[in-house]
Amino acid sequence: MNIGEAAAESGVSAKMIRHYEAIGLIRPADRGESRYRHFGAPDVHVLRFIKRARTLGFSIKDIGSLLGLWQGHRPSAEVKRLALAHIASLDAKIAEMRGMRDALGQLARDCHGDERPECPILEDLAGPRFDN
Fold it and tell me: Is a pLDDT exceeding 90 seen at residue 109?
């Protein structure tokens, strides 16, 4: 199948397939006499693996490691270590986002939302004023 068909089958855009090939995440596709890329079912399977890993928020570096573990000798301890490290990273991001939401929520509650020129949201974004 050509790159468009592989993209449709895998759910990964042709642009991203080319990118993954360029950065070495996937092996270069076979090319026919016309120099067009040719993909087989195993290639699509790998692309689906990558898409699912991206959906779960894994970094490209981690996906490369996971692909290596999936395609070769894979001690499950290493796979679990990568997953738990990713969970810890997600937990930290969630906590950070909750903090941002809470801070913005408090600023919105403090804002009168009327015709007054005072706005705690804008004042907070502006930070302290520096007069020279």
Answer: yes
